[in-house]
Amino acid sequence: MATAKTEAFTQAEQDLAAFAKALAHPARIAILKILAAQNECICGKIVDVLPLAQSTVSQHLKELKNAGLINGTVDGPKSCYCINWKAFEKINGKFSFLFSSLKTQNEKACC
Amino acid sequence: MATAKTEAFTQAEQDLAAFAKALAHPARIAILKILAAQNECICGKIVDVLPLAQSTVSQHLKELKNAGLINGTVDGPKSCYCINWKAFEKINGKFSFLFSSLKTQNEKACC
DNA sequence: TTGCATTATCGTAATAAAACGATAAAACAA
DNA sequence: TTGTTTTATCGTTTTATTACGATAATGCAA
Predict the structure, then answer these.
(1) Domains in chain A: how many in total?
(2) Contact A32 B102 (CB under 8 A)
């Protein structure tokens, strides 16, 4: 089978993996940077900056939204996106926790 | 086409995406935890803990190794793995930098 | 040498992801 | 009303990922 055996792992492991998956494409990281570089929501203009088709960008935005990393609202014929800071902080905390928990071990490089 | 247009993005974005991809599966996060929880390299025993076939675990280990997150050496009939702390730190730093650079913006939630 | 234990690799199958074009929907302008 | 702009969705194709069993390779034990 090809379906990931997610059910066999802890919820924390699944959450981290899902978050990592949302970041696992340079286009989505670029989108987050673009959104963060603005003080306000961005309505349009995202497609113009990226070297991807409009439908592809829309797809990436949808994935970021599904992962909870960004918010999106409809503003007339346009759509506005901005970073969901609250969710981002929460999930960033989990990440930092993983790193720190890994790091607290003695860093013996034995191979 | 289905190939990711990685060449269209910055090296930093690609690096982060590649790192995120390595973490984008609960099994690989679980493996990192297992490795970090030990003081020494782990020779064997990884397969026993995970609910996956031996070949699948070997595949995940290979991906972590390719991403530079772990080291692996052959020890007789067994293989020994441990976390590559140096690479991990470096890449973790990049991640933290992304987070902090995102966070330095004012966190206006406008949508 | 022969067998055993361990791990990597190969082959294969099923699902997911990435990308695009075409089309639909929605709100505004003329 | 009709057209324009903007974005989402659908359908499709290509590639990547996940998973497993089977097999190969490796070094040790008997």
Answers:
(1) 1
(2) yes
How many CB atoms sit inside 10 A of residue A29's CB?
23
The predicted structure's pLDDT at residue B61: 97
**Tens-place pLDDT, residues A69-78:** 999 988 878 8
pLDDT of residue A109: 54
Q: Which of residues 68-87 of B touch A (CB under 8 A)?
A: 71-73, 80-86
pLDDT in tens, B56-68: 999 999 999 999 9
What is the extent of the structural domain holding A82? 23-88
Residue B1 falls inside a structural domain: no
Residue B3 lies in a domain: no
- Portion 52-71 of A in contact with B at CB < 8 A: 52, 71
Give the DSSP letter of residue A76: T
Residue B104 lies in a domain: no
- Measure the CA angle with vertex A111, ends B66 and B88; round to 5°: 50
Quote the CA–CA distance of B99 and A95 in Å, as a whole number: 11
> Which residue's CA lies closest to nucleotide C8 at its C1' atom?
B58
Structure tokens at B33: 């935890």
pLDDT tens-digit series, residues B3-57: 666 667 999 999 999 999 999 999 999 999 999 887 677 878 899 999 999 999 9
CATH number at residue A77: 1.10.10.10
Q: Do the Cβ atoms of B9 and A24 come within 8 Å?
A: no
A42 assigned to some structural domain: yes
Is the CB of A6 less than 7 A from some atom of nucleic acid strand C? Answer: no
Q: Which helix (H) or strand (E) holds B67?
A: none
Angstroms from B11 CA to nearest CA on chain A: 9
